[in-house]
Amino acid sequence: MATIPVSVEEKIGAGEDGGNGQFVRVILADTQAIFRAGLRKVFALEDDIRVVGQAETLAQTQSAVAKFSADVLIFEAALTPNPVEAVSNLLRQSPGLRIVVVTPVADEELTLELFRRGAHGIVSREVEPEVLVTCLRKVVAGEPWLDSQGIRWVMEAYRNQNNRPTGSRPKVQLTPKEMLIVSCVTQGMKNKEIALRVGTTEQVVKNYLRKVYDKLGVADRLELALYCLNHHVVDNTKVPPLPASGVNGNAAKAAAAAASASGASAPSSAAPPSVSEDSPEKLS
């Protein structure tokens, strides 16, 4: 059974940071109690790190961020089907918070999207305890944290974007529907969520994206997002909210009905994505 966010004051009156009593205050948000317990043991050995709250669902994480004064949120990507949007929302909720995202495996697309949307650090589930401690101190000091592979991905993405000749990108106007879809892409949404938000099907979204790629001279959705952000293409485009029925799985039916009315084919399944309960290797 899920628990409510819990305050964890582990070192009251214990060691101080350089004698000034300053601590790195951390909220642990992870689906696995064993993983959270392992991190608490790791941080208990550090005089300048204190766990002040914990959560095991996205809703609890939002509540913990609002309730506890924290410097860093350690956020498991598997807490939500869309960790990119969740990170963005949490940063809007608490702009001064530093977020370190724990990913199950190294993933180039997820790493780039998280970093672009404001994550301050990204580590894998198998991160060594001493590396995670160093990561927390770095992000609190205002430095981003990526492993060497993540740094290469970011550098390559921006190098590819900047090296593309300006003349190869035709100056074209996007249609309102294309603008909506592109705006969703720049916010890290997948085709399924985009389809729900704009009232169409995943296949129609793919068709629109292919046309946009050709118009702008980009190769994939990452290049599209970088191009649109660098050129402020969708700055004034408002992304439509998810239909209210989406939480019960009815949003896909509504999207299918809307698509049917416009002559498009319906999605093959209306079931929302599920989150696996399986846990990767634990940190103890």
What key attributes describe this structure?
Rossmann fold; disordered C terminus; 284 residues; five-stranded parallel β-sheet; 2 domains; alpha/beta; 11 helices; Arc Repressor Mutant, subunit A; single chain; elongated
* Rg from alpha-carbon coordinates: 21 Å
Number of domains: 2
Strand order of the largest sheet: 2-1-3-4-5
Overall number of strands: 5
What characteristic shape results from the CA principal axes?
elongated
CATH architectural category of the largest domain? 3-Layer(aba) Sandwich
Oligomer: single chain
What does this structure look like?
The chain has 284 residues and is α/β, with parallel strands linked by helices. It has 2 domains: 24-155, Response regulator (Rossmann fold, 3-Layer(aba) Sandwich), CATH 3.40.50; 168-261, Arc Repressor Mutant, subunit A (Orthogonal Bundle). It has helices spanning 33-44, 58-67, 83-93, 108-116, 129-140, 148-163, 176-186, 191-198, 202-216, 221-230, 251-261, and strands spanning 24-29, 49-55, 72-76, 98-103, 121-124. Helix 4 packs across helix 6 and helix 8 packs across helix 11. The longest helix is centred in the middle third of the chain and has 16 residues, at 148-163. The radius of gyration is 21 Å and the shape is elongated.
Task: Explain the layout of strands and helices.
Elements: E1 24-29, H1 33-44, E2 49-55, H2 58-67, E3 72-76, H3 83-93, E4 98-103, H4 108-116, E5 121-124, H5 129-140, H6 148-163, H7 176-186, H8 191-198, H9 202-216, H10 221-230, H11 251-261
Parallel strand pairs: 1-2, 1-3, 3-4, 4-5
